[in-house]
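User: structure tokens for Nuclear factor 7, ovary-like, please.
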Amino acid sequence: MASVFYSEDLNCSICLTIFTDPVTLLCGHSFCRQCITDILNTRHQCPQCLTAVAAEGTFLPTSLLLKSLAEKAKEAAKMKKQHEPQKAEVAELCPEHEEKLKLFCVTDQQLACIICRDGEKHEGHKFKPIKEAAVSLRKELEKGMENLCGDIHVTVSLAKTQREEITKTKQKSKQLMTQICRQFEEMHQFLRKREDEIKKDLKDKEEEAMEKMSETLNAMETALSENRELEGKVTSILKITDYERFLKSWTEENSMMTPEHLFRPRANELQVVNNSLTLGPYESHLQFFMWKEMLQVIQPRAEELSFKGNSRDITVSDDGRSLFCTPKSNQLLSDPFGNPFNQSSAFFSPPLLSFHQPMLNSVIGTFSVNEFSSGQHYWETEVGQRDYWELGIKDNFLKYDGQKYSTCCANIIRELSFAHRPRKIGIYLNCSSKKLSFYDADSMTHINTMSSSLMTIPLSAYFNIRYRAPDPNPMTVRWY
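Assistant: Done. Predicted tokens:
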């Protein structure tokens, strides 16, 4: 008879019934073979202690001792069931008042007798006849099961998508790592230290991305495990046809929790984390940026752009590679001190420029016919000691007015705290992410990065210059 008293210890924690073909994991926990096989198909962890389980965990031998005890427990339960009618009458009595349990307290989610209903403990509570309460609860549970199944399906889909994102991130990280190694090969000895630093940066980004996504995946798998465990429990309860046993089993398993609370959707609380690895300019212009940091080692590989313009205030050199400010118009503007400025504007695009010239707010501007539609681009403009300039792309640029720097994005001006006076300005444009970065081109010090979804592809490079007199110093632009 010991098997009767200890039969609860022979229950599988997944299906909540006595073991069928039991197996024991290395962590010591035992389950039905089919139950643990279903779990290990989605994750390789023990459902109880979350210890990792090898892929071959489903091929464990049957635990003969547990199987023998389980069979004896089943036989004892069968014998017990034959005497259940006599004991059922005892179970119908209220343990406190020894009256028949004819009511179900909806408020406390428990069976009650007539005396319980009129007692102080249940004052103001809502009661239903046992049959009516059972029918109502069954409908709720069946509806909840439908929602639970849908929630499980959505969670499985989300977990699958998250795994795909993790795989993509690993592949992108591997791709970038290979690219970094290949580009560093040309400057192997001198830049070994710098190469290791950039690799570490990429690794940190990968680990950060993997940590966030792994946490999300763990949350999804936990929710999935809990839902499946609940599914097993409810399925077992729904198999009970006797109203009183059905309600009693439900209340014993769930205490004060209502079906509405138990079957709340979990997938709505989950969201797949997307994280695309990027190294910014080091991803597409790695060798160039390393060259800018180590000019004494790497030889320049820039191309001088050829210009062609039709502004009367801009003169193109004979070789077509430089622009001179030669004001010929009568338009004059004033700086913050009241001194007159003349103004010229132009856009460039490699390898040969051709321009058309509209009027914008009484400012003479020159726009390139050639434009940037995709990819990543970098160019540098020599500003020297000029007191005013605007550089960037149309409607998104960096401005210097002789005293301070500011950015202009869709006519919104924001002042910057950058206090240096660069001789050359480097501009990095990523068309896909619509990000525009500015650098001190001599030291590669980052000045500012602008991001705007309002950037309309294709994009044109832009510069605007003001000056007091004809400028003998040419402005050149180099594109890399």
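User: Anything notable?

Assistant: Confidence is low (pLDDT under 50) at residues 330-369.
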